[in-house]
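[retry 2/3] RNA polymerase sigma-70 factor (ECF subfamily): previous attempt timed out, resubmitting with same input.
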Amino acid sequence: MSGGAHSIPPGDIFATTRWTLVLAAGQRSTPESEVALEELCRTYWYPLYAYVRRRGHAKEDAEDLTQAFFARLLEKNSLQGLSSERGKFRAFLLAALKHFLANEWDRASRQKRGGGAVHLSLDWESGDERYQCDVVDTLSPDLQYDRAWAVTLLDRVVARLREEHMAEQKTELFDALKPFLTMEKGAIPYIEVASTMQMSEGAARVSVHRLRLRYREILREEIAQTLADPSTVADEMQALFASFAG
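[retry 2/3] RNA polymerase sigma-70 factor (ECF subfamily): success.
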């Protein structure tokens, strides 16, 4: 999803989410729902891979299993049985993966990457490197999954925010202000920012405020895209970031 949604009223942003499109397809998938599902899978493949690794599977097996899972999920008619009761794509995806691992290990272990009907080109090398850095031995596979999902979500938000600034030729400003996105307001060195960017302290405060505001807007948009009911964004946000306290 590209940036540039600044002028769209919040009510319209959440009118039809990607996950809503998938759920609405029901037993008969549509081109729109298939694209929406594939985009969601491309975005959130890493938390699934991390979960499989945390379950004890080696790198190559985890890659094969994750790819085979997506091949099955993205097959035609794979949406059959979905209902709005499965309101969170995060929860649905993990439940589907657990079922897949429990019932399809023999088949999936023989199905090498690219052998399925659908193939997602994923950056396995960076995924493994990231897993080595992210894995926490004290976390359960489920909590590791939630934490990886939250980190992936935040990475996507920052990437969108940077793309927006690049489009406005403000990349340098974004790179300078990025460290302050989640910093406590009282700790932000506005005078230092003003000196670095050659602007007044007042302008620095406004720039940081706008960046943080847009960051929160995009964060809510991205979370909403994985929910059937966008009114539960706050609850999902709280659940996700609780994983960092685990």
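[retry 2/3] RNA polymerase sigma-70 factor (ECF subfamily): The radius of gyration is 20 Å.
[retry 2/3] clearing retry counter.
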